[in-house]
Amino acid sequence: MSEESExxxxxxxxxxxxxxxxxxxxxxxxxxxxxxLLEKEYGREQAGEPEFCPLKLQDVVKTPGExxxxxxxxxxxxxxxxxxxxxxWRLIQEVARLVGVSPEDTERLRSETVxxxxx
Length: 119
Description:
By secondary structure, the chain is mostly helical. The protein has six helices and no strands. The chain has one domain (3-117).
């Protein structure tokens, strides 16, 4: 991934994380901790929230492996407060379709993530 693509991916991931955290109307400490971790990892210092752009995300997620990793991360963050609510699951399904992850693979990733996070 080029430096520009990597920066675009990071920006879209942060925007998507914020959208996911806001999806159920409740921002838990655990969910905010995930976002802060990613912001620190990516060295994000700019003020304001990045804007989520589906076409930009589609452009920077190039491979099936990257797409599945993105869905796994979204699932882990959605489970940070103990459960994936319906609005979070709908958003994850929309993003999965957007980046080319089939409904079957999305469900498989959900099952695997639930087992990994909450055995």
